[in-house]
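Tokens as discussed.
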């Protein structure tokens, strides 16, 4: 189980734009459960942040991955968005290495253990749901 130093947690101020380089992102296990954590290259003493569900979606929609340099802007609250909102823009994207089977192994090595753990949990959840849907004969009802 990893521990996070709260003094190194990046918190976004209303109306600010912050440039970060992503080291890793995904679910991490802690003493009291798991949380989604984005690890970043240390900047101004900060080395991680915990994105809201909305910010996680923006990161995913932008296709952000390890090594990418991005800008995160926290837009100030207004009448329509009482808590404000985030925008994410790519500054510099890291290209996947090479093409073809010979470089596939190199690309897999960059997948971190937490990503594998998260994917394993998702597959298990899907398998359990499919099992519930199956009838006595082992067939799906559709």
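Sequence:
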């Amino acid at each position: 189980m990893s521990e996070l130093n709260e003094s190194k947690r990046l918190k976004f101020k209303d109306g600010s734009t912050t440039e970060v380089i992503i080291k890793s992102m995904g679910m991490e296990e802690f003493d009291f459960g798991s949380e989604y954590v984005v690890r970043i290259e240390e900047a101004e003493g900060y080395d991680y942040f915990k994105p809201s569900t909305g910010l996680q979606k923006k990161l995913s929609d932008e296709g952000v991955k390890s090594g990418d340099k991005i800008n995160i802007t926290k837009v100030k609250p207004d009448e329509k968005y009482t808590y404000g909102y985030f925008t994410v823009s790519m500054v510099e994207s890291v290209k996947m290495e090479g093409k073809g089977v010979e470089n596939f192994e190199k690309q897999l090595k960059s997948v971190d253990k937490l990503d594998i753990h998260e994917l394993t949990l998702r597959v298990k959840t899907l398998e359990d749901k499919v099992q519930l849907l199956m009838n006595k004969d082992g067939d799906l009802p559709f």
